[in-house]
Amino acid sequence: MNSSTPSAPPGLLAGAGTEGRLSEQLAVVVAGARRRAARIGDGDLDTAHLLHSLLESDPAVRALLGGEGTRTAKVLGYLAQRSIGYGVRWRDTVEDAPPYGAGEAAAPAAPPGWSPRAARALRVAQERAASRGAARVEGVDLFAGLLADEGCRAVEVLRASGAGTEALPGALPDARGVRSMRGDTAVAR
């Protein structure tokens, strides 16, 4: 792995290594998102890179958007346009840190190469997996982590492509522990 590849977020992948904390499928997703960020010249892996890789690699996440249907195709089409320059307004900008509600600890700094929101989505995914007693984080956990932050680029992509996000958290299996950021208050769903 070269030094330009984003390192793993602290707390999620530290210690046990990628294979110990992520399912095999999700490890492929994260590696794909890293490659996508590097290939299109983005300095940081962001939540849209993670969403793109999830939809390409994880059938369970695709199923939440209706499988191989029109909704999934629209989201992938929007993401592909971004890859070839449509999302140029995001180029050379870092996805900002998500807001934290009263009583929540401040987010740890995102590691080099990761947007703060992407690192947060992975931490939420880990918490979600732990809340259901799973040893490994799955793609649906990461998808839930993305949906929990209504201000992230992944959610912006879902909305802009017409996929909508309102009903998705309730469609997730074992949705307990999913958090939603609304304004400056985080609420459990």
Automatic annotation (TrEMBL):
Gene3D superfamilies: Clp, N-terminal domain (1.10.1780.10). InterPro entries: Clp_N_dom_sf. This is Peptidase. It comes from Streptomyces daqingensis.
